[in-house]
# Entry
Amino acid sequence: LDDDALAGEATARVLESAPDNKRALFVDACARLADPAAQAAACDSLAAIVESRPRLLARPQMARPLVRALARIGPAACLPLRRAIAAHADAHSLDLVAQVAPWVEPSTLRARLDMPCAPGEIDALRATAMALTGDATAQGGDRARLLAQHAADRYSALCVAAFAADVPLMWPRRAAGARVRVVVLADAGEDSTSATSGSPRSTFESLLAALQPLAERIELSVGAFGSPQRAVEVLHSTSFVQARVTQMPAIPDFESARSLAATDADLLIDITGLARPNGPLLAARPARCVIAMADVPHLAPPLVDATLPQDRGAWAATLATLVVSVVIDRVSAS
# Structure
C-alpha cells in the first residue's frame, strides 16, 4: 500500500476474483479520487466505508493510500469525505487526521495530538500544524492558531526526543576562524506563498537584507531547498556573492545534519518554518545555536534556541545581538 502503482495492480487482480473485497474497493476508490470524472462517486464510496468501518483506518499502512489521495487533490475537494473522517478522528492514524484537521472538533483534535506517537508519525504533527494554519487565516481564527502552535510544540519536543544525536556532532565552541559562521536553510527556489510569512523567496531576501550590515563579520553558507540556482541569483544581488550554496534533500535526515555540522557553524537560521520536515535535522544539532522564525505556528524550544521576531524590521537588531553573543562567548573561552 506504500506504492500507488503497485497497489493499483494488486487491487485490480483482487477485484477480478473478488469484486466485493472491502479493502480492494477502498484502495480503488482512493485511486479514483484524482480523476475529476470519478471523484464524486469515489468520495461517496469512501465516506460510506469510513462511516461503516471507522477502525479500518487506525493502522497507518491502511490509511496511506487515502492520505496520499487527499494530499494530491487539495484541501477544498471532497468535503463530505473529510467531514466523515473528522467525525472519527480518534480512531484514525495521525497522518490521516492531519489531512482533515480543520474539520475535527477542537477538543478531540487536541486530545489526538497529545496521544503518544511513533517516530514515523511525528511528521504528521507538522502537517497538522500546516493544515490548521490555512484554516486560521480563513474561518478557524484564534482557536485554529492555538491548535496549530500546540501541534508545532509537540512536533518540536518529539523530534528532540526521537532524533537527537547520541554523540554531539560538533565541539561546543569553535576556536579557529575570525568570522562567525552562519548557515541559512532557505526555500529560495519555491514560488508558493504562505498565508503568514509571504513567499519563501521574499523571506530569504529579507533575511539577507538583515544580515547585510554583518557582512564583514560573518561567513555565510546556504542550504537550499528547491532550486539552488535561484538561491545563487538572490545572493548575487547582495554582499554574499561568495556564499557557498548546497542542495538540501526534500526530506533531510541525520546524514544531512552531519553534512551541515561539517561547516562548523555557529548559527543555523531556518527560514523554511514548518513547510519543510526539518525537525529530525535540527534535533541532531548541526550548529551551536539554532534559530527559527516566530510566525504562527513556529518551531519551538527545545528544538530551536531562539526565534526571529515576526516584525522583519527587527531582524537586523536580533541577528546583530546573536552574532555579538557568539563573539563574546568565544573571547571568554579563550
In short: Residues 199 and 280 are 24 Å apart (CA to CA). The longest strand covers residues 180-186. The mean pLDDT is 87.
